[in-house]
Amino acid sequence: MTTSLDRSSASAPEPRSDAGSRFPVDFLWGVATSAYQIEGAASEDGRTASIWDTFSRVPGAVHNGDNGDVACDHYHRMPEDVDLIAGLGVDSYRFSLSWPRIQPGGRGAVNQRGIAFYDRLVDRLLERDVLPWVTLYHWDLPQELEDAGGWPARDTAYRFADFAEIAMNRLGDRVRWWTTLNEPWCSAVLGYDTGRHAPGRQDFGDSMAAVHHLLLGHGLAAQRLRETAPEPIQVGITLNTTHALPATDADADRAAARRADGFGTRIYTDPLVLGSYPTDVVDELAARGVRLPVQHGDLSVIAQPLDFLGVNYYTTHYFSGSPEEDAEASAEGPAESSGEGSGEQAADGVALTRVVPQGYPVTAMDWEITPFGLTGMLTRLGADYPGVPLYVTENGAAFDDRPDQDGEVEDADRTAYFAEHIEAVAAARDAGADVRGYFAWSLMDNFEWGYGYDKRFGIVHVDYPTQKRTVKQSGRWFRDNIRRNRQG
Length: 488
Ligand code: FCB
Hints:
By secondary structure, the chain is of the alpha/beta class.
């Protein structure tokens, strides 16, 4: 394995500001990944299929027909990858557990060989002084649970709580930080409404049922984690809250942004923190003949105390509520990831709102680069949901990296993206938001869902044919930024 950490980072541009010095020494710096995106070893040691194994085999579902069979081969290269993480000088590593590796089929016995992998990973991280931050569910539902109804079925929430207990039993003596779900919006809306993500279903009512059962699953899992934890733990959830602004001051645009905010943010944050679904969202659903399948007591289960709220941020959207001739209806547009997390996706193919590009520079995902939106999102969450510590659990950018002949990547664009967004986090803190950590997405290039291996988000470059890892300029900058921050 080659890393570039020894190379001088003199060539890296200085961050636009001395962002590092604006954070306290206990601010948590980390890098993030997820299981299906990096592990590979898809059928090893008893792992069974997840919905992403199945979906990626549907012709046309994933760019280039890519899948996660090998990915970054992290399952076999884990020790070296942990060394790489430690070399970046981060405090924490956020990774997810593969449910079908640990509990094949999603119910019943634990697969000892599967959980042993995470046991080794956690031990190795701790040996290298890196805090393990576990996400229980980052989209890889066991296929058998999908066959039994998936997230639109209530039983999946109970299966998820059982899985949480299994993970706690085996890892809870060493893992303190637990995230239940990553971006339930993506699971529910991309998975069951637009069909852009696994399992690729397209039914608006089902997607709204999935929202409720994901939240219920979160609440049940949070309860179970706390009941079974051998030591005090921190439990939270990660959302890709939609930062929705009106395209103009017109009433129709303000209403459109409000609707996007309702379906992209408040339908999650309100029940989680306040214990109720937002009335405007419930009313709109009722008008469309959809009822969330809430049973007596569900909302108090969902509203478990949150030790933190994880926020994944990539871009901001401006919404218009009026139709425009020839305008591309946003509900038709690609919506693969959190950058596209917006309410219009929930509009069942009806373009009630549309996203109006603002002409900001874009990343390789075509997502506009809007660091001010991160400040806006964090301060808004801090104001509307006070008392919940915030962590940026993902932020980063895909660019068309051009490695030189040695595989080095001088990604000044990504470096600038990080510098600006970290500065935006500092601004949110200055404005009073209780933001306590920041995780770069991603540790390394990986399987970017519907985009396959085409989009690279890593601060470490992966040459897939050889699996060689090379720290990019942005990775060196990130390491140096943490160092500067520690020096105060
Ligand atoms: C988020 C996902 C993550 C990655 C980034 C780009 O929506 O959580 O897995 O795909 O977007």
